[in-house]
Design goal:
It is built from six helices and twelve strands. By secondary structure, it is of the alpha/beta class. A hairpin with a 2-residue loop joins strand 2 and strand 3.
Length: 243
């Protein structure tokens, strides 16, 4: 009896963890519903797709297929002050003075696009990368890309008005992506394992002075905001790393 009583709280919290969606998942669900409600009928939305990639697998929050291009949307359900640049390896969120780093979502979207292009050999101009943050995030970014709060997502998509994909081809592209996707619980486990493996490999390279992006040597440099490690192949490679 004592054993059952002592184990019960752990079972209770495990069930809560299993049944209640994470903050990130809730953000993705919110965006998925908004896309479904607000976009025209000729836009086809596919959510939470895991595709094979050069590094094992890649998970894409939302893909929107339309005559005006394929929109690759990365959702970040973050609040606080968000800073970063196109070239930064990591961006930063500042919540009440507490600072956290996270992987540059534009780079995530670039890898997502490459995974899709391995299946759909379309030109780059057919793809539009969008990173969407919660309305509670204040964006202070230096970027040429589309990074918006939730309340500007739909208008950003609808701002594209040039037809780049024949309407009759769209469903076929959707079908090919769905056929290539990896599904089921095992797919999630495989993806998480691949992510952990790639993060470990990335830091091994950095610790050995190797650029994880192009294989060049890392050089210690001094910039406006202090010292950092930069790739010796700059300006061809813009990889930087700060301790």
């Amino acid at each position: 009896m004592f054993l059952l009583i002592s184990i019960f709280p752990f079972l209770f919290f495990f069930l809560l963890w299993w049944l209640i969606p994470s903050k990130g998942t809730l953000g993705e669900m919110y965006v998925a519903k908004k896309l479904q409600r607000k976009l025209p009928d000729d836009f086809i939305i596919v959510n939470d797709v895991i595709l094979p990639s050069l590094y094992g697998t890649t998970q894409i929050d939302h893909i929107v297929f339309s005559p005006y291009g394929i929109f690759i949307i990365e959702t970040k359900n973050y609040k606080g002050w968000i800073t970063g640049t196109d070239e930064s390896e990591y961006w930063q969120k500042n919540v009440y003075g507490n600072k956290y780093k996270f992987r540059n979502p534009l780079m995530q979207n670039f890898s997502h696009q490459k995974a899709i292009q391995a299946i759909l050999p379309l030109d780059n101009y057919c793809f539009h990368s969008i990173v969407v943050f919660s309305n509670k995030a204040s964006l202070n970014l230096s970027t040429r890309n589309i990074v918006v709060n939730n309340n500007r997502l739909i208008e950003s998509i609808l701002s594209f008005t040039t037809i780049v994909i024949p309407k009759e081809d769209i469903q076929g592209y959707v079908n090919r992506i769905l056929e290539a996707s990896i599904r089921g619980k095992e797919a999630k486990k495989l993806h998480v394992a691949n992510v952990c493996k790639n993060i470990d490999l990335r830091y091994r390279k950095i610790n050995n002075g190797i650029c994880p992006r192009c294989g060049g040597q890392l050089v210690n440099r001094k910039g406006k905001y202090g010292y950092f490690w930069g790739c010796s192949n700059y300006p061809k490679c813009h990889f930087i790393f700060k301790n």
